[in-house]
Amino acid sequence: MPSATRAPHRRRRLHRAAVSTALCPVALLGAAHGAAAGTWSVTPAGAGRPFLYAEGPPGAVLQDTVSVTNPGRTPVVVRLTGTGVRTAFAEARLRVPARTRADVPFTVTVPAGAEPGDLSGTVVARDTGGRTATVRLRLRVAGPALAALTVEHLSVGTDRITYELVNRGTTALAPRLAVRADGVLGRVLDRPPRDLPVRLRPGARLKLTEPWPDRPALDAVDVRLTVTAPGGAHDTATASARFVPWTVPAGAAAALTAGAVLVVRRRGSRTAADGAHGSGADEEGPEGVESTGGPVK
Fold first, then answer.
1. How far apart are CA 44 and CA 52, in angstroms?
2. Distance, CA of 57 to CA of 122 (rounded, Å)
3. Three-class SS state of 267
4. Is the pLDDT of residue 291 over 80?
5. 243 C-beta neighbours (distance < 10 Å), count
6. What is the average per-residue pLDDT within 147-159?
7. Cα(219)–Cα(198) distance, rounded to whole angstroms?
8. In angstroms, how far is CA 34 from the centroid of its own chain?
9. Is the pLDDT of residue 208 over 50?
10. What is the pLDDT of residue 113?
11. Average pLDDT for the chain
């Protein structure tokens, strides 16, 4: 943010111990632009600036100066405040003598977690009679725009899928979600990509739930969540689950599941053998059965 004598885009940090409010006779400098005769005004310090401007990375403290001009014949007491962004003035309350201009340094702090882009605010001056005047403030957050996210803590419950989304980049994200689940006998859930009703700010973590009321009563499934967002953000998470009815003993359910896997494997082996040796071949597939409970690649 500029000082009163620098170009508008020049950044400077404030050394708080070294600042003071400067008082200058209005007659030597001319009345402030836009100020009516006999009324006070607040403007960016320096000539020809329509608004205040600052630029810096997240966490930076930037300096500029505003001028309170009193062209009238009596003193005026003004209080300065900032809106929209964190602002600190060298003097928040000041008395400006008649026909005098007061230059007040102040700082703006760029939010530590701000994403690259533009923020807006105002400097507000109010006198003891309730009259106010404002100056626009534009703050540009510097830094590369990076879109990145992760899907974490995926778990499958009785009627829902829960997971967490974490924004690992520097820009806000509007994520899209696709869900797929494969059971022993094939696909049991397939939801195409859709927009989620959330906006994820940089560094934010959000726990979400995906309903699954019609999940299988008896099956071993692998669930796969794929989340994308504009800018190239992409991540996938997988989890396995076994569904067993309360009326079926655990041992019987495991046997049923293993039996189903064995039938599928042996049918596949017979089909391959029939294709190689003709319809009269009586060769069987391998006796061992590999586990299919691992995560989907």
1. 6
2. 20
3. helix
4. no
5. 17
6. 94
7. 32
8. 40
9. yes
10. 76
11. 78
Rounded Cα gap, residues 209 and 221, in angstroms: 18
CA–CA separation, 46 and 64 (whole Å): 10
Rounded CA-CA distance 78/68 in Å is 8
- Count CB atoms within 10 A of the CB of residue 269: 14
Residue 76's nearest CA partner among 105, 111, 35 is 35
Lateral strand order in the sheet of 176-183: 186-195, 176-183, 219-229, 233-243
d(CA 61, CA 72): 35
- What residues does 189 pair with on adjacent strands? 181
Selection from 238, 239, 116, 232 nearest residue 175 by Cα: 232
- Tell me if 162 sits within 8 A of 170, measured CB to CB: no
* Alpha-carbon gap, residue 110 to 80, rounded angstroms: 19
Other CB atoms within 10 A of residue 170 CB: 20
pLDDT of 42 strictly over 70: yes
Residue 6 has pLDDT above 50, yes or no: no
Q: Whose CA is closest to 52, among 126, 132, 134, 138? A: 138
pLDDT at 143: 83
Three-class DSSP category at 276: helix
If you average pLDDT over residues 46-67, what whole number do you get?
A: 91
In whole angstroms, how far apart are CA 9 and each of 16, 19, 74? 21, 21, 36
CA–CA separation, 256 vs 275, rounded Å? 29
Q: How confident is the model at residue 22 (pLDDT cuts 50, 70, 90)?
A: low
What single-letter DSSP state applies at residue 129? T
Residue 115 to residues 83, 118, 195, 209, 237: CA-CA distances in angstroms? 19, 9, 22, 27, 26
